[in-house]
Structure formats: structure tokens, C-alpha cells
Fold this sequence. Notes:
Elements: H1 2-25, E1 45-47, E2 49-54, H2 82-87, E3 97-99, E4 104-113, H3 116-127, E5 131-136, E6 139-140, E7 142-149, E8 152-159, E9 161-162, E10 164-166, E11 172-174, E12 177-186, E13 193-203, E14 209-211, E15 218-219, E16 244-255, H4 273-311, H5 315-319, H6 338-364, H7 374-385, H8 387-400, H9 406-434, H10 443-470, H11 496-523, H12 531-558, H13 564-573, H14 575-589, H15 596-634
Parallel strand pairs: 12-16
Antiparallel strand pairs: 1-3, 2-5, 4-16, 5-6, 5-9, 7-8, 10-11, 12-13, 14-15
Helix pairs in contact: 1-12, 4-11, 4-12, 6-7, 6-8, 6-9, 6-12, 6-15, 7-10, 8-9, 8-10, 9-10, 9-15, 11-12, 11-13, 11-14, 12-13, 12-15, 13-15, 14-15
Amino acid sequence: xxxxxxxxxxxxxxxxxxxxxxxxxxxxxxxxxxxxxxxxxxxxxxxxxxxxxxxxxxxxxxxxxxxxxxxxxxxxxxxxxxxxxxxxxxxxxxxxxxxxxxxxxxxxxxxxxxxxxxxxxxxxxxxxxxxxxxxxxxxxxxxxxxxxxxxxxxxxxxxxxxxxxxxxxxxxxxxxxxxxxxxxxxxxxxxxxxxxxxxxxxxxxxxxxxxxxxxxxxxxxxxxxxxxxxxxxxxxxxxxxxxxxxxxxxxxxxxxxxxxxxxxxxxxxxxxxxxxxxxxxxxxxxxxxxxxxxxxxxxxxxxxxxxxxxxxxxxxxxxxxxxxxxxxxxxxxxxxxxxxxxxxxxxxxxxxxxxxxxxxxxxxxxxxxxxxxxxxxxxxxxxxxxxxxxxxxxxxxxxxxxxxxxxxxxxxxxxxxxxxxxxxxxxxxxxxxxxxxxxxxxxxxxxxxxxxxxxxxxxxxxxxxxxxxxxxxxxxxxxxxxxxxxxxxxxxxxxxxxxxxxxxxxxxxxxxxxxxxxxxxxxxxxxxxxxxxxxxxxxxxxxxxxxxxxxxxxxxxxxxxxxxxxxxxxxxxxxxxxxxxxxxxxxxxxxxxxxxxxxxxxxxxxxxxxxxxxxxxxxxxxxxxxxxxxxxxxxxxxx
Length: 639
């Protein structure tokens, strides 16, 4: 009856998790409490804000006004949060304006005569496939395209619009005419409107004008009075020194049935739900396989071994035993480099807590894309707060290993992962700053990050270390012999490198499909908002790391090899090796990179991510093995 009840609870839990993933994975938009819609009157004047220029080829964002676009008299920078600055967002005002629910065509911004340097810069960005990012009422601009699936034809947005295009003969043409289509939802009772869509269609037009006037220029190629509008057949505007470019735009309004609360659905449309469900099912099969193996070891083999061992009466009978029971006097021997093991474990718990809390808030909808930079800001702040946990766990393990210099241990715990990120980030920042990219972190933000690190994170680490070192260490269930036991020769498949590489396959196999979508959102400028799937995959990853490490640790102890401390960390942590290898495959098969600096940026970021993944997964495996070893040797009666 107990088994049936337990199985019923497991089935209910899986059903709840799947329902949660279906809700969040359906790309429904959630919004932060307090973010209210803006109601517009018919004659309200609304301004479009410009953001950065982005490219999936160079991965280097630039300020909008780095190109010879029309500038307002005074450029005003919007207040950006920490996450936006780290992502390279630079939101500024522009000359694009529109009157709510009033169609206006052929609006002229300005004319620009290209210098040789401006033409070179513009042509280079067109060649590197840069796209312009804009914002209207907190909605990013998008080009419309349609996808067909089982649910029929659905509309999907591509973020931004291209700066221009090139032809086969090497000529570059700039998109100097933008047709904006603003979708709005109208309240029939109050006649107020809410913007629910921001679409655009770029054109390249070699504008000709009858008479130029800064107040009211008259164009031949775009004149509403003569019913002359820009179309696909218009002569394009070539980019070359001395060429005069006239920038124009249309604003068209279209009433929509989309309600304000659902306006992000089109931006977050995911056409690959089946792939995510396949990933979940694949991962669950891995967990089921490992769970069966773990159950067989724990409930059958171990239970039988412990029962037989405890029934032995004479020393001769005890000596005839073999396997994991023979190394009871060495299994809790302090490992080599135990300081770094405690530091790695503490940092891993910090990363584990940060990831868990971040995904939890994301699933609840508090980290909506409507809150630009919110996800990045939340990750940084939660990581800083969780420094206390890092200090506590690392100091507790450090004392368990009979360490004394807890202050030095706290210094290492507070500097390990942030130090790696800071060093790599500083080198990249210098190189990006040399390219005059907006992706370079400003000095002011550097001081903020340094304050978060040394002003908050380090003190919290020391506070946690002090409390962790004061706690009584765990009592060892068996005594440790003074003389180490000789380890017998191991078969080839139990050698460290082979066992570690085998152990890392299954954790990576549980997450590699979801990893593809995460990398795509990072490097191909796409939204990622399927946190329900991500939460399930993360839970499966933790369970897989714990189970595979316990299984491999059991096999190691049965081979009378008691050096399980570091191997348990490396077994599940080896998934990071496969993650980095997959990053190499992703680079060569998905990305189109033409700059050496972009290659360096990509692999630097992948190294930092893989290192963090190594610490997180390794910690899960190490703590699971520690609990496993303490449990089995605590069940054995040893004089």
C-alpha cells in the first residue's frame, strides 16, 4: 500500500510539473505587478525611441547614432537598469513621432550627405548584417513573417529591421524609408486606445525632391497629394561617398483584437514546442533509468550487504568480506587540496541557489521581457545575496576537513568564480571598447559591480564563513585508520579519466536540447521565455547529476578505491566538458562569424558559462555522494 501511495504521489507531481510547463512554455506573457498599460487619446503625440544596432555576425552592439541617421537637437538617454547596461542597450530619443490613430505618409526627417568615413561605416554595417532596434510603448519593433504549423498560419516577429542590403556585385543600399504599422486595441466605451503591436517594413528609396525646405520639403518619389508612395519597385538608395540620403517614414494604424495583456504573445511565439516536449521525455527516461539503478543498489544490493555484514560474528568472517565494506577505515580520509574542494562546493551551492531562485521568479512571471534587463539584473543581485550561503557551506566543509585558516578559505570562496568572470570580462571589455561598441561596460557600471562584489558579496561571504566555521562539524560514522590502505589495481573502465567522462554524458544528455535554445537566444538575438520547460529540465539535471554520481561512487568503493571526494565532484562536473564541446559544434554549424574578435568573445563567454556549469553540477554530485557515503557507512556496525 505504501508503494502504491508513493507512486500515486509521483504521478501527481509529474502531472503538476507538466501542467506548469504547458502553461509557461506556451509563451504566454506575464507582467510585473505595477506595470500598467498606457491609454492614448486620438490626438496624442507619441515618440519612438531608438535602441542599439545589433548583429549576429559580429556580436558587437553599437549606438543608433553611430550611423549617419537624423539626430534630434538634444539627445536624451533613458535611465537603464544594470541588466540593460550589461546587455549593451542604449535607449535614446529620436525624430520619429506619430499622432495616435492618424495615418501619416512620407514624413521627412532630414537629408544627409555622406562623407567618405560615414559611407565606409554604413557600408561595413550593412555588410555585417546589422539590424536597427527601436521601442514604442515598451514594445520592440519587429518585421512580420508567417510560420505554418499544425495550428495553421501564425504571425511571428523578427526583432528589428536591417540597416540595408547588398547585391551580388558588391553594392550596398541603405533602408532609408521605414513604414511603421502600429496595432492598437480600442476601448469602445471610452474611445481610448492601447498599443498592442509595433511592426515595420523597411525600404531603400533614392528620393528625389522638387524643392527642398527644412520645414516642408516636397518629394517626387513620395507625395501623398499625388498618390505616390514608396513600394518595392522604387529605385534603391546606394551607399557611396558624397551621396545625399533623404530619410523618410510612414505611420499606419491598424485596429486589432489583441488585448493589452496578450500583446507579447507574437514576440514570444515558439514554433518548437514538440522539440521541448521531446527533450523533457528524453530527460525523464534518463532519470527513470538512473532511478531504477539507484533503487537496485540502495534497496537490494546495499541492504543485503549491510544485513549480512552486521550478522558476522568473528573477525575471520569479517576479513573474508570484500568490496566497499573493506575501505571503511579510509573512506573519510581528508582528500588532497581539501581547501579548494570546500571552496568549489560553496561556490556551487551559491550558483545552485541563484539558478533555483531565478527560475522560480521567472516561472511566476516576475521576469517578463517587458521588463528589459530584468533577468540579468535579478541574476546578479541574487548571486550577490547568495554569497552568504557560499561562505557558510565552504567554511562548514573546511572545518569538517580539519582546516583552521577559515579567513583564507573565505577569501578564496569570495574570489573564485567572480574573479574568473571579472578577469575575462575586463579583457573582453577592453577589446570591445577598442571597437567603440556600446557593448563595452561604462566605468560607472564598473564601480557599481565592484561595489556589489567587494562591498556586499565579500562581507556576506565572510559572515557566512564565520557562522559556518562555528558550527559543529558532522561526526564521522566510522573511524579513520592512521595508515592508508593500499588500493588494488583498477580495471581500465574504472580509471579516473574514463569514469569521469562516462559520468558526464548523462547529465549533458538531459539538457543539450534546451541548451540549443538558450544559446540561440543569447547569440541570435531571440527571446527566451519558456521557463516552465527550463524549470523541468533543471530539476531533471539536478536529479541526474545526483544519481549518476552515486552510482559511479558505489562502483568505485566496490573496487576498493576510497578516493571518492574529488572524483564525485568531477563525475557530474564533466558535463561541462560536453557543454563546451557542444558550444564548438554550435559555433561551426549555426553561427556565421566573420571577425576574429567575435570568435574570441564567443569562446570566452562559453568558457565562463562552462566553468560555472562545471562548479554547479559538480557540487550537486559531490553533496549527493557525501550523503550517500555517510548513509551506507553509518548503517554498518564496526567495532
